[in-house]
Design goal:
This protein has helices at residues 5-30, 55-58, 65-73, 81-92, 98-111, 114-125, 127-134, 139-216, 222-251, 268-278, 297-317, 359-369; strands at 283-289, 323-330, 334-342, 373-379, 382-389. The protein has 2 domains: 5-176, no CATH class; 263-393, Histidine kinase-like ATPase, C-terminal domain (Heat Shock Protein 90), CATH 3.30.565. It has 12 helices and 5 strands. With 393 residues, it is α+β, with helices and mostly antiparallel strands. Helix 3 (65-73) runs antiparallel to helix 4 (81-92) and helix 6 packs antiparallel against helix 8.
Length: 393
């Protein structure tokens, strides 16, 4: 994984800063105080190690070079955090490299899984008892060094675990935000799809009925032909207008101030019935609604779409058959919609209008979203559609 320029600058500054901080740490070790248990004494870089290693090695005094090497290795701490931490720990047992050890342990806790980080933490704490066992004359300085070492290791790893947890929470929050946005977008698309189906299916079915009448009755009087042609033109024009409204919403930015297309209300049911009656359908509408002006917009829009889809299905599957619509309700009891039409006998041709089979499914979803339910099916010789929508007080 490539690093950004910002990360490179941070790592370069960290290498320089740790190298500078190693100087006062080395001075503290010379005065007998070590921040991390070492195999050397405070007097020299290999004071204690000289008592353990053979003579040819004892004469080699590498001083603080292991600590500086550990500082330089921090440049690769993001790419190989575990390897850098292990090498820094090895260097810290030979030279005052407590600062690069702390940084490398913090990086392991942030970048690696908890199980791997805990193994590294165990390896970092291992020199504490080992130093006390090997050095029988550790005294107070050795105990303080062990305490300091344990404190710095635990603090560095704990800080790293905290930062890692915060990163995970941030990533999870971002993922949840993306998921919510996708769900909202999917919901908006489904709503638009339902609107397009309900509106265009109604308009185009009216257009198909009038066009079919002209096709099967070419010898009709000129006045009737002109009237049918005018209805076809008007239906096509209205269908195009409805489609343009929906497309305008789809093309607008998410935060655009473009107004959404106006939604129908319960008062538009009468206009809907009149349009279908003008197309040659026989429709009887009975309305008994207490205070219709108080009907919520969602309830009225749902009732309108139910009646619209019911009339569209009647034109498709039962052309020429009468349709009886009943809309009743009052506040606190809800609104009920009942639509009935005789089922055509076998052999009677339909209107020839293709259907997607999704209209009634969409109506059921609409009713459920409004808190109600919808049932449909055959009852004797009639096709029956019944819906109930709550009307809260």
């Amino acid at each position: 994984m490539s690093r950004t320029n910002r990360e490179k600058a941070i790592d370069l500054g960290l290498v320089a800063l740790t190298a500078v901080l190693c100087v006062p740490v080395a001075g503290m070790q010379d005065r007998g105080l070590s921040l991390y248990p070492q195999l050397t004494s405070g007097a020299g870089p290999f004071g204690m190690l000289g008592n353990v290693l053979p003579w040819p090695v004892r004469v080699v005094d590498v001083g603080e070079f292991p600590a500086l090497l550990a500082c330089a290795l921090l440049w690769w701490r993001r790419r190989w955090p575990v390897l850098v931490a292990v090498m820094a720990l090895v260097a810290s047992t030979l030279s005052p490299a407590a600062i690069p050890v702390i940084v490398s342990l913090f990086t392991v806790a942030v970048c690696k899984p908890a199980r791997t980080a805990l193994w590294v933490m165990a390896g970092a704490l291992a020199p504490v008892p080992a130093t006390l066992v090997l050095n029988h004359y550790a005294g107070l300085s050795g105990v303080s060094s062990a305490l300091f070492g344990c404190t710095f290791v635990v603090a560095a790893m704990g800080w790293g675990f905290l930062v890692s947890s915060l990163h995970e929470r941030t990533d999870r929050a971002e993922a949840e935000a993306v998921l919510r946005a996708e769900r909202a977008q999917q919901g908006a698309r489904e709503e638009i799809a339902r609107e397009m189906h309900d509106v265009l299916a109604h308009r185009l079915s009216l257009l198909s009925v009038h066009a079919g009448a002209l096709e099967f009755n070419p010898g009709a009087p000129a006045a009737e032909i002109g009237q049918a042609a005018g209805v076809i033109r008007q239906s096509a024009h209205q269908a195009l207008q409805d489609l343009q409204l929906v497309l305008r919403v789809l093309r607008a930015p998410l935060r655009s101030t473009t107004s959404e297309p106006s939604h129908p209300t319960l008062r538009d049911v009468r206009r809907l019935v009149d349009e279908s009656s003008a197309a040659g359908m026989w429709i009887k509408l009975d309305q008994d609604i207490d205070a219709p002006a108080r009907v919520p917009s969602l309830v009225g829009r749902t009732v309108y779409r139910i009646v619209q889809e019911g009339l569209t299905n009647a034109r498709k599957h039962a052309p020429g058959e009468p349709v009886h619509i009943t809309v009743r309700g009052k506040q606190g009891e809800g609104l009920t919609v009942d639509m009935r039409n005789p089922v055509p006998s076998k052999g009677v041709p339909g209107a020839g209008i293709p259907g997607s089979g999704q209209g009634l499914i969409g109506l059921s979803e609409r009713a459920a979203l409004a808190g109600g339910h919808l049932d449909h099916g055959r009852a004797g010789d009639d096709h029956h559609l019944h819906a109930w929508i709550p009307w809260p007080v």
